[in-house]
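User: I'm putting together a teaching handout on how multi-component assemblies are represented. Below are the sequence lines for each component of a complex, exactly as they appear in our records. Could you produce the 3D structure of the whole assembly as structure tokens, so the students can see both representations side by side? Please keep the chain order the same as the input.
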Amino acid sequence: MKYELPYYAVIFSSLRNKEDGYQEMALEMLKLAEQQPGFLGVESVRGQDGFGITVSYWSSLEAIDRWKAHPSHVIAQELGKEKWYEEYGIRVCRVERQSFFG
Amino acid sequence: MKYELPYYAVIFSSLRNKEDGYQEMALEMLKLAEQQPGFLGVESVRGQDGFGITVSYWSSLEAIDRWKAHPSHVIAQELGKEKWYEEYGIRVCRVERQSFFG
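Assistant: Of course. Below is the structure of the complete assembly, with chains in the same order as your input.
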């Protein structure tokens, strides 16, 4: 997915456990994120070992802050820490350059 | 993996085919990248559908440019386009903020 510079990427790297309910919540959050102002797109992959990377793309830092503070997302974040994630890292990045093939 | 700000992330999102030789080259490139000045670390995951995300972390844009221009890496890039990748995107990003759990 190609977007016009400048924009921002949120890299979410996480290690999941096997507890139930994650898929439903993840899908709900994805649908909700897509409706937020400034949301550009998302790429996500998880391996069989439970490690996954999700990168979401946003038009501005303000859009990222609003999504972080969205009430439903705040609840999902808390549940994530309580139930589903062994560990995670979040990095908010400004995309400086990009190139594509294919 | 936690690194001190500021630093840079290269997000490599790719769709692979099933052709042989990829794993060997990927491992060789990983070993070589780890030896480069300015390399901080890497996170990588690929799903069974062939879509994968690799994020490598670097201390500077100059370190990223040097790695991009490394002769062995240049050969690997060409082989990647000829043989292994259906499509890919590369985004060079400046990490602005980060947080970690667990």
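A couple of points students might notice: Chain A has three helices and four strands. Residues 7-95 of chain A form a domain with the Alpha-Beta Plaits fold (CATH 3.30.70.100).
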